[in-house]
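Progress narrative, work stream C.
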Amino acid sequence: MKRAIRYLRFSQLGQSNGSIERQELYTDQYLQYNNIQLVDSFIDRGKSAKTFDRPDFIKLQAFIAKHYKSVDYLLVDQLDRFSRDAGEAMSLVKQFQKKYSIQIISVTEGIVFDYDTPGSFFRAGLQLLLAEEDNINRSIKVRGGLYTARAKEGRFLTREKPFGYSKVGEGKQRHLEVNEIEAKIVKTIYDMYLRDVPLYKIKEIAYQSGFDRKGNMAIDRVLANPVYAGLVRVEPFKDLPGGLFPAIHEPIVDKTTWTMVQSKMKKVDKVKVVIDDEIPLRGVVKCHCGTPLTGAPSRGKSGKYFYYYKCKHSKHNNISAIKAHEQFLNVCDLMSVPERQIKEIRDGSYASIEQEVKANKKKVADKKHELEEVQRLLNAVEEKWFRNEINKDTYERWYSTYSDHILTITAAIERLSPNQGKAFEILDRNLDLLGDIKHVYTKSDTLQKREFVKMVFNGNLYYQEGIYRTPTILDIFSHNASKMEEKGCLIYKKKRENLSVIPHSGR
């Protein structure tokens, strides 16, 4: 009696025409009709035929290599179950016959592949080519549909939802909706990155806040993902262009912010910046040559460590951190804003807050209208469930969808709801701090100190010949510039706004 093994496969769990049950039925009938003994079966469920890298197909090859002397045939329902790559399939089929003397039988196609029989070889090759052609056509249709959905309709189709969003709806109505809690973390990540917070610090803060994506590049992927700017990335299809297209979902960050982040990611130096509380100005203050100053401790004769800011060029700056910090505190003291100016800022800020509160009231009204509509839909689903017009699975699916939507809208309403009294209270409390910048700087943590220096001096704070120097400083803090120079702590020489205008000195 001849002996056989069989290989069964289908690529999608929802397939019916190529189901395992049907393949088992047809191969069982062939075995019974031809009086062939079945030795073993190898089944790959939900595996594509594009490659041979499939678990049970690998086991099949190992079995043949070990037991080929006791096997005559390898049965498949159709040759496309075996593979859709005609070239690789023909090569492997020939190997099974020539090396192991095992013939491939396609049961429903009635083909016993025999490499030494021209007609058999032609039929098998033709079936494999037709299967590959069918696969190519289906692939074109799928890619065309994906291109239309993304580029023309602006739909986000990736299976995994991006952090910061929830997936709502069913079928073509399925779309991304902002998750207010996660979106706040995403905004913080973008904000910190633009403020030059080191990536390792961004990760620490993000994970403490509830960021749950794993991997060393998780934050990098958030920063690079165009979905947060309301865009979707599309691959080219035939003659149609690829690139970034407007999406239908709501953005979490504006396009300008996202573009600035992409530009910075291209230019950023991959050297890791480590924050040290003893030398908060490391990498923030520059040497007169333009090189950011590094910082490190040096051990004195007594065994005590003293910190210094240094330039990588040995003959340039080597400054005591104690001296540098004392000088900068003197600068901060002289930057304190006069009470008269604080009053002007307060008046202008009041007007701005009132304008924002007015705009938010309109947004809240729109969100409340949307909430009423979703609540109406949820009530309708509950009524259908009570009247037995829908089954339990349908009810639970829609109840979950609408409930999640209600929670999202409610969170947005809470975020946008005006609290004018609290806003003015926060404004008054913080504005008064402008009168004592030295205190503000001293009480700040290291990250805040670094951010403060970059913001105030626009990243242009230098050290030369025992004194700080800058061409740029926020106007609000520049009123005592002459005193800063007199006291030997900072020289402020304003940068010319129009370089085409030649100064009176002729230089």
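Work stream C, second folded protein:
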Amino acid sequence: MIASVQGEVLAVGGGWVVVAVGGIGLRVEVPAGGRAPQAHTGDHVSLHTSLIVREDSLTLFGFATPAELEVFGHLIAVSGVGPRSALGVLSALTPDEIARAVAAEDEKPFKRVSGIGPKTAKLISVSLAGKLSALGYSEEPPSAGTGGATPSASAAVQLGLTGLGYGEADAAQAVQDAVTAGAPTDEAGLLRAALRLLQSDQTTTRGRGR
């Protein structure tokens, strides 16, 4: 198994580079487009690699980060997704974007990848569910209007605040203001921050009434 390749770039093409290693030029297939490693002839590169062995070929796939290599491994384990298709996904999406799409059960980003049909796109989103959190990515999609807080956390905190006697509109606004101000996005931290804002507003209102 060739786990990594380091050396001078001898040639660069669309979706591949040739790297000099021990007097041998190794061709490495890499993400294309905007996700391609920024390498030019004469540069020194270090790529994390996966060697794919077939009956009629040995193909080396390389990535700039360990995260991309990890996701590549998960993608090629999905039925119907070959190394070329997996490389296409990583040419179009970052590991974090892939994790977010999987968490949201959203196959649309995968459908936009050349060679990935609707059925395969759905299979990717289902097959990768729960497999990317161990890699340190956020698999929770951000809640619209509440920064990085998850929908479940925001809803739970709002419910807790209404249970304490605050109005629904005030509770929702306090949660949104707390997250915008950089409050923790876990339920306990978000609740404390929202309560401080509500109590501060009450103090200000009483002060004005004097």
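The beta strands are 4-13, 16-21, 24-29, 44-54, 57-63. No further action is required on this item.
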